[in-house]
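Page 37, continued from 36.
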């Protein structure tokens, strides 16, 4: 009987380790929808850079194409990869295509608050405690 209890005590953590919560992981360029909506043909590379930031992949052999790569992994699922590409002719934006995780950072923050509750004190609460 004692051996069975010891075996269960050793096996239980191993069996339950797969049930633990895994936080969603976002990597790469998380583009904001409001910035992508502001893209317009004819914009300069500097203007696109100001809106979207630096590209994940800037091919030195094809400087007329910038790729913004991002991935999301939730739990034990496989990662989902999305690529958003902007094309230039010279210094002028001609077209853009692809997918991106729109508002992924705000959605993830909202999900975390719903799951675990707020973790930071509001400013008015900080003022009361600081006095």
């Amino acid at each position: 009987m004692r051996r069975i209890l010891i075996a269960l005590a050793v096996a239980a953590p191993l069996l339950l380790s797969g049930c633990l919560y895994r936080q969603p992981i976002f990597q790469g360029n998380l583009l904001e929808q409001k910035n992508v909506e502001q893209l317009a043909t004819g914009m300069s590379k500097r203007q696109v850079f100001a809106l979207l930031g630096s590209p994940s992949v800037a091919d030195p052999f094809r400087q007329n194409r910038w790729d913004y790569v991002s991935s999301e992994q939730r739990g034990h699922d496989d990662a989902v990869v999305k690529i958003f590409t902007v094309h230039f002719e010279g210094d002028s934006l001609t077209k853009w295509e692809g997918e991106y995780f729109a508002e992924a950072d705000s959605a993830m923050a909202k999900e975390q608050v719903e799951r675990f509750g707020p973790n930071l004190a509001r400013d008015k609460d900080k003022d009361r405690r600081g006095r």
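The mean pLDDT is 80. Flag for discussion at group meeting. The chain is about 35% helix and 25% strand.
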